[in-house]
């Protein structure tokens, strides 16, 4: 990190639409605030299991609210999340473990692609309702994110390696150590201590804690 920069870690999983909202806002602010933004791909199901949390959509009234809420947030945050009625079933059925391991492998080898790759997985999962657990779709996402076919293929082969599996597990455990129980989990290291913020709607509060100016979700 550059002197005087605040380290801000974003723990996320592309299965989480709110993580996408938080991710895009923080990506915009890394040019506005004096922060060193680190992407920390983790596994949401692992966090839920460890903390005894349940997917919010399992409560029918909350599921109903979430659909409206995500639509409004998508518009306000200018992020193309599209929710449909069967999304919550899809999440439980398809899962994103393979995608998160793929992002983890890239983070370990070619971290400059993590941002574009993560965005591509979110787009496919949440805008195009694609099954991103399929290797062919993972490779297509990688290509769209700027990886060469060779690099994408090599990364796909790394996905089942112990090194990648362990790294994803370690990152997930690190999020839990910081107090995470869901995602996005944003950890700002300020004045020598970590500050955890949960959700995409706490970034205004984050800015106040680290002494930066909040200019709305789309700072121009």
From TrEMBL:
Coiled-coil stretches, from where to where?
none
- Pfam families this protein is in? DSBA
**Name recorded for this polypeptide:** Glutathione S-transferase kappa 1
**An example Gene Ontology biological process:** glutathione metabolic process
EC annotation from Swiss-Prot or TrEMBL: 2.5.1.18
**Catalytic activity, per the record?**
RX + glutathione = an S-substituted glutathione + a halide anion + H(+)
Q: Which organism is it from?
A: Probosciger aterrimus
GO CC annotations on file: mitochondrion; peroxisome
The residues annotated as the active site are 16
Determine the domain of life of the protein's source.
Eukaryota
- Gene Ontology molecular function, alphabetical: glutathione peroxidase activity; glutathione transferase activity
